[in-house]
Specification:
- Helix content is 37%, strand content 20%.
- It is α+β, with helices and mostly antiparallel strands and 150 residues long.
- The chain folds into 2 domains: 3-43, Arc Repressor Mutant, subunit A (Orthogonal Bundle), CATH 1.10.10; 63-137, Lrp/AsnC effector binding domain/regulation of amino acid metabolism (RAM) domain (Alpha-Beta Plaits, 2-Layer Sandwich), CATH 3.30.70.920.
- Strands 2-3-1-4 form a 4-stranded antiparallel beta sheet, with helices on one face.
- Helix 2 packs across helix 3.
Length: 150
């Protein structure tokens, strides 16, 4: 990957609706060379997927929360089982296995507190192997970035 590839990736991450011609002009390539580079980056897996990023509040998911989870039973199979269940939840935007005092960190985008209450019943009941969980409601976001700058 050279500096032109990195410039293309940064442009694409900022606005994937740019035309190939516009991106080619930005990096000093012909449109056909630019397209070949983008196809190669996609085929190699550097570009995982191209998506639309929604405004969560305008999409009806006004509440953001982070939840740390400590499991009762540890081990790979228990971790995988919980992450699988959590990942299937519509309100869970990110689910991470982590090191430290907790086993899992979940990022949630919620419509309302009723949705959160129902989610807690499903994810944190006695049958889900959760010893304890701590919820932190986000009151202000200082930075939310999806780009992996090159």
């Amino acid at each position: 990957m050279d500096s032109i590839d990195k410039k293309l990736l940064n442009l694409l991450q900022r606005d994937a609706s740019r035309t190939n011609v516009d991106m080619a002009n930005q990096v000093g390539l012909s449109p056909s060379s630019c397209l070949r580079r983008l196809q190669r980056l996609h085929k190699s897996g550097v570009i995982d997927r191209i998506v639309a990023i929604l405004n969560p509040a305008k999409a009806g998911r006004m509440i953001k929360a982070m939840v740390t989870v400590e499991l009762k039973l540890h081990g790979e199979q228990h971790m995988r089982r919980f992450l699988s269940v959590a990942s299937a939840e519509e309100a869970v935007s990110h689910a991470y296995a982590v090191t430290g005092e907790n086993d899992v960190v979940l990022m949630l985008r919620l419509r309302d507190m009723e949705e959160f209450d129902a989610l807690c019943d499903r994810l944190f009941s006695d049958q889900t192997n959760v010893a304890r969980y701590i919820t932190m409601m986000v009151i202000r976001s200082a930075k939310e970035e999806t780009a992996v700058l090159m």
